Amino acid sequence: MLFLARQSIRSVPRLNLARVAVGMRQLTTVKTTSQEEQNILVAQRKNRPSSPHLQIYQPQLTWILSSFHRITGVGLAAGFYAVTCTFALSSLTGLQFDTATLVSLVAGLPVAAKVALKAAASFPFAFHVANGFRHLVWDFGHELTIKGVYRTGYVVLGFTALIGTYLTFFL
């Protein structure tokens, strides 16, 4: 057995280091300032893909709904924050902006603008609420299979369509 092992080692071709060295790149070092290093790093980062996973994977209901849940959460929070800050600034500066002013401002809009404004608020709100309940169901350990995740995703989309339409046109 030892003889076979020696023979197999001898049969492995030896590496010709001269041939390997020819194929290698020559590396050189250059003295630079920290600002020049930063500029080189920024130039290198511009050539990198930002999100290769978006180009590789096929869009799936799971990550699309997850992305929209985050986007609607940020959008709704920004809208509520903007209105709240406007009320606060109006009380500090003495400008006339209260609920009656806001109602008269919306009442003066054309019907199409009112419907668009209501839709822009109601559909993200309905989606975020429904997907929030979906996450609560998952927190209790239910519907965690692939089939359950897709089933609850389609329920969220149906709920969003129904409640968003109701809030936009009938309320």
TrEMBL record:
One of its GO terms (molecular function) is quinone binding. One of its GO terms (cellular component) is mitochondrial inner membrane. It is a multi-pass membrane protein. The chain crosses the membrane at residues 71-90, 102-127, 148-169. Keywords: Heme, Iron, Membrane, Metal-binding, Mitochondrion, Mitochondrion inner membrane, Quinone, Transit peptide, Transmembrane, Transmembrane helix. InterPro entries: SQR/QFR_C/D (IPR034804), Succ_DH_cytb556 (IPR014314), SuccDH_FuR_B_TM-su (IPR000701). One of its GO terms (biological process) is mitochondrial electron transport, succinate to ubiquinone. It is found in: Mitochondrion inner membrane. The keyword Iron applies. PANTHER family: SUCCINATE DEHYDROGENASE CYTOCHROME B560 SUBUNIT (PTHR10978), SUCCINATE DEHYDROGENASE CYTOCHROME B560 SUBUNIT, MITOCHONDRIAL (PTHR10978:SF5). NCBIfam families: succ_dehyd_cytB (TIGR02970). Belongs to the cytochrome b560 family. This is Uncharacterized protein. It comes from Ogataea philodendri. The lineage of its organism: Eukaryota, Fungi, Dikarya, Ascomycota, Saccharomycotina.
